[in-house]
Amino acid sequence: MHTVAESSTVGRTTTADVLRAIPERTRRRRYLPALAMFGIDYLGAFLGTAGACLAPTWIGRIIFAVVAAFSIGGLFIIGHDAAHSSFVPSRRGNRILARLAFLPAYVPLASWRYNHNVRHHRFLRVRGEDVVWQPWSYEEYWAAPRWQRAYYRLLRPPLGLPFYWTVHNWLPRFLLADRSRLRSEWKQFQVDRACVAAYAFFVFGAMFALGRAVEHTAWSWPRPSSAVETLIWALVVPYLMWSFLIGFVDFVQHTHPRSVWFGSIEEWDYVTANLRSSTHIVLPLHLNGLWHHILEHAAHHVDPRVPLYELSKAQEALETAYPDDVLVERLTPAFLWRLWKTCRLYDFTNRQWLNYDGTPTAPSQRSAPRFSGCAVTMP
Question: Is 0.70 topped by the overall pTM?
Answer without folding.
Answer: yes
